[in-house]
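Project standup — Tuesday

K.O.: blocked on the structure for the chain from last sprint. Re-posting the sequence here as requested.
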Amino acid sequence: MQIYLDHSATTPPHPDVIAKMQAVLSQHWGNPSSLHAWGERSAMEVEMARVETAQLINAQTPETIIFTSGGTEADNLALLGVADQYASPQHLIISSVEHSAVEKTAQRLERWGWEVTRLPVNQYGQVHPWDLEQAIQRNTVLISVIYGQSEVGTLQPIAPLGKIARARGILFHTDAVQVAGRLPIDVQQLPVDLLSLSGHKMYGVQGAGALYVREGMELNPLLTGGGQERQLRSGTLAVGAIAALGVASKLARLAMPTETPRLQGLRDQLFDLLADCPHLIPTGHPRERLPHHVSFAVKSPVEVITGQTLVRQLNLAGIGISAGSACDSGKLKPSPILLAMGYSQEMAMAGIRLTLGRSTTAADMEWTALVLRQVLQRLIEESSLVLTK
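H.V.: unblocked you, prediction finished:
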């Protein structure tokens, strides 16, 4: 029995997405910048995908969608595209629980002389709007706060945070990679200037993402060359992957009214099935969280059971999950997200994430809970035996 519970890492492409990509690669393979019929057919595929992606987030003007290679490039373009407009270093605000695509870009700006403030979070991983108010300086030019945290599932109060930024005339970016296609987004109502999303997180294919750039705002490109994507992202467009993103966006928009509550029900079912397990501590906000997201930190009575250990053990049982800790040069490093939320070093090495998708069933939740309990019990018993010898 195989159960894939790592949909926040990537999702299996929808059959309609695969069919679209195959059709484009076999029939509409021209360079969309070319003026002849082959180029025009490819350009039409790109523009149809732009319309569908815009509709997913209710962007009234499709031209506000800039296609990228994925969420990481979109995040980089948002931050560096703003920063490059300034001759001297300014001030950037991010949260302390950002994806590495934002955090490491902020670190780069720090090396260039920029001042970066990282907003604290509470035990659920949420930023408080008051902390943002206090962090703003006279030279603050950009605020970037992740919408849905990929490791612990917490949703940030993006609307109140964005309102603060807009009232002060400061640009606001959100990494919505985990939210887009899972929860409704309306950029006409949400006070954001820049928003990142990725196709392979919503049953598209890897290699295509987008950055929403509010109409009228200026942004400098990361890549220069042929001037594609309104001069903001040069390079021959990946027509097949972009067309796949368009189909994925349409399918997600149509499925959300039924799929989102279904996933929330399965998510809550798994939390309930494991609620009495003393070794699993739920992480993230209990209610204001991604609809498909379940996460825990392992509290072992004998020794640290790392998240990576559980990933390997559940993989042997045919269940795919992920861990928040990372292995660098042979040494296990604690999750910076859990550390920012106040967890100890030991607990921060013991985080796991189970993320659900369109193929997930209630029976999968029951089997996963049973297997996870058994694996934990066996690991604890084995550790106890070693300690008594």
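K.O.: great, moving the ticket to review. The longest helix spans residues 239-273. Residues 15-252 form a domain with the Aspartate Aminotransferase; domain 2 fold (CATH 3.40.640.10).
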